[in-house]
From TrEMBL:
Keywords: Carboxypeptidase, Glycoprotein, Hydrolase, Metal-binding, Protease, Zinc. The lineage of its organism: Eukaryota, Metazoa, Spiralia, Lophotrochozoa, Platyhelminthes. GO terms for biological process: peptide metabolic process; protein processing. The active site is at residue 326. Belongs to the peptidase M14 family. PANTHER family: CARBOXYPEPTIDASE D (PTHR11532:SF62), PROTEASE M14 CARBOXYPEPTIDASE (PTHR11532). It comes from Macrostomum lignano. Its cofactor is Zn(2+). GO terms for cellular component: extracellular space. It holds the Pfam family Peptidase_M14. This is Peptidase_M14 domain-containing protein. GO terms for molecular function: metallocarboxypeptidase activity; zinc ion binding. InterPro entries: CarboxyPept-like_regulatory, CARBOXYPEPT_ZN_2, Peptidase_M14, Peptidase_M14_domain. SUPFAM superfamilies: Carboxypeptidase regulatory domain-like, Zn-dependent exopeptidases.
Length: 476
């Protein structure tokens, strides 16, 4: 045996010892930051054809590219499925509050399940991964997790120790306060009512974790997302911040019906969340009071007002719809309780990921070519039972290759594609999300703007598709 043979044996033996076997992960314990990365890496190695592993980056105020938290950790993401035009992008974010750890473990276990399920030919895993692109980030606040687990740090991790990042900032209060801006615009009645944040310099002076996630949100065309927290049992939806004139009141967004349906997609999959008899006891939940949340959902502002949170930033800055889920009563449960949290939330995770196929999607072309990213705007009117038309004052725009995706509730809608220099085109669609879920696809509705010379030029009248006859009232 020569030296090189010997070194191969050492290397291969080393691999056997070090590699994480994802079939044999102990789920009744917590995983530290190193273990989280090792599991993501092992899933990526086991399922290389359907996963990619990356971490987030941003540019600081000096223009330097950064990719670390204050303590030098990275925000790792494992993406399932390939990026293809028209395929919706979904994200899970866990552990934003470092001591709220259930989401972190659920996302990790979900990653392993999707990979092994796909490899074993499980049809559900194949559909979840094959029909959407799923981005899984187990921890947005790895520094907070370390602080929560540092015996020398003051406080209790079952309360708030480790909630903040290492600079003592609550990351869910560190995003631009776009609610305040939208409330001003609503009062003025002028709009715009969406895409309210643009960072022309690409530089960011907030907390590194916030900057990285903001860039992630703004540069991907996410359709749907959830931010997983702990300490109560409820799916919380925008707006999170109270309107200035009505503190503690329900603060509905233009997509209130849709957000309720999305939140219900989650809560209805978790009986312990959906059924109000299972209120959280005193250890960090609702202090033993009867569960105040009907069917396990709540409007954020109605519960308690949060300014500068992440879910409203998603909604008001991008095409992404995000809810915030409180997964269970304990922020930091003992490891042996984690399997129960998994069983309680497993179906809800599947339901919610599947909701990325709600609504409609399609391609917008202009004079025969796909429009550029952001170049066409999709506006939506809900058509009421009496035929009246109710505008939803929140638009999405096109992503790469002219593709858009608009989540919608069930029912009839008039959907209009708008691009500069072309007459807008309106089509009427009946949405049945049950059918969408059976097909694992949103309904496909393409728009061809400036398709003929008569429709070219600004100020041309709206072209209304024959599908709207008898649905839209005169003059619409
Ligand atoms: Zn939290």
């Amino acid at each position: 045996m020569n030296l090189s043979d010997f070194s191969i044996i050492i290397l291969s033996f080393g691999c056997v010892v070090l590699a994480t076997d994802i079939d044999k992960i102990e789920w009744g314990k917590h995983h530290d930051n190193k273990e989280v990365f090792e599991i993501l890496e092992a899933v990526n190695k086991r399922c290389p054809d359907i996963t990619s592993l990356y971490h987030l980056k941003y540019r600081d105020t000096s223009g330097n590219e950064r990719d670390e938290t204050p303590r030098g950790n990275k925000l790792h993401v494992l993406a399932f499925g390939t990026s293809e035009p028209g395929r919706p992008e979904f994200k899970w974010v866990g552990n934003m509050h470092g001591n709220e750890v259930v989401g972190r473990e659920l996302i990790l276990r979900l990653a392993v399940d999707l990979c092994l399920g796909h490899r074993n030919g499980n049809p559900l895993a194949a559909s979840l991964v094959g029909r959407a692109r799923l981005h899984l980030m187990p921890s947005m606040n790895p520094d907070g997790w370390e602080i929560a687990n540092d015996p020398s740090a003051p406080g209790r991790r079952t309360e708030v120790k480790g909630r903040q990042n290492a600079n003592n900032v609550d990351l869910n209060r560190d995003f631009p306060d776009l609610d305040r801006r939208i409330y001003e615009l609503e009062r003025a009645g002028t709009g715009p009512f969406d895409h309210l944040f643009s960072n022309h310099t690409g530089r960011c002076g907030r907390q590194p974790e916030t900057c990285m996630v903001m860039k992630w949100i703004l540069t991907n065309n996410f359709v749907l997302s959830a931010n997983l927290h702990g300490g109560d049992k409820v799916a919380n939806y925008p707006y999170d911040e109270s309107r200035p004139d009505s503190p503690n009141a329900y603060s509905a967004s233009p997509d209130d019906r849709l957000f309720r349906q999305l939140a219900l997609a989650y809560s209805s999959g978790n009986p312990a969340m959906f059924d109000r008899r299972y209120a959280c006891p005193a250890e960090g939940g609702s202090d033993g009071r009867p569960n105040p949340f009907r069917r396990g959902v709540t409007n954020g502002a109605k519960w308690y007002s949060v300014a500068s949170g992440m879910q409203d930033f998603n909604y008001l800055a991008s095409n992404c719809y995000e809810i915030t889920v409180e997964l269970g009563c304990k922020k930091y449960p003992p490891g042996n309780e984690l399997p129960r949290y998994w069983e309680e939330n497993r179906q809800a995770l599947v339901n919610y990921m599947s909701a990325v196929h709600f609504g409609i999607k399609g391609q917008v072309t202009k004079a025969g070519s796909p429009v550029a990213k952001g170049a066409a705007v999709i506006t939506v009117d809900r058509i009421d039972t009496d035929g009246s038309v109710l505008p939803i004052l929140h638009n999405v725009n096109t992503g790469a290759h002219g593709y858009y995706h608009r989540l919608l509730t069930d029912g009839p809608f008039a959907v209009t594609a708008n691009a500069p220099g072309c007459a807008p085109v309106t089509k009427c669609v009946m949405i049945d999300n049950g059918v969408n879920l059976e097909r694992w696809s949103a309904r496909q509705v393409d728009f061809h703007l400036c398709a003929d010379a008569a429709a070219t030029g600004s100020g041309k009248p709206r072209q209304i598709d024959s599908s709207c006859e008898g649905v839209l009232v005169d003059g619409e």
